[in-house]
Amino acid sequence: MKLFYGLVIHSKSIDDLCFLPNTVLIVDKGKIVCIQENADVNKVQQKHNISSENVVILKENEFLMPGMIDTHIHAPQYINAGFGLELPLLGWLNKYTFPTEARFSDLKFANEVYTRVVANTLINGTTTAMYFATIHKDSALLLGDIAHQIGQRAFIGKVSMDQNSPEYYIEEKGSAIKDIEEFIVSLQSKNYPNIQPAVTPRFAITCSMNLMKTLSELASKYNVNIQTHVSENPAECEVAVSLHEGCRDYVDIYAQANLLTAKTILAHGVYLSDKELEVLHRYQTSISHCPNSNCSIRSGMCDVRRLMEKGLRVGLGTDVSGGFSSSILDAMRFAITVSNILSLSKSEDYKPLNFRDVFFMATLGGAQALGLDDKVGNFEIGKEFDALVVNLAPTDGNLEVWPDESIENRLSKWIHLGDDRSISRVYVNGVEVKEGASNTLRIKR
Ligand code: GUN
Ligand code: ZN
Question: What is catalysed by this protein (predicted)?
Answer without folding.
Answer: guanine + H2O + H(+) = xanthine + NH4(+)
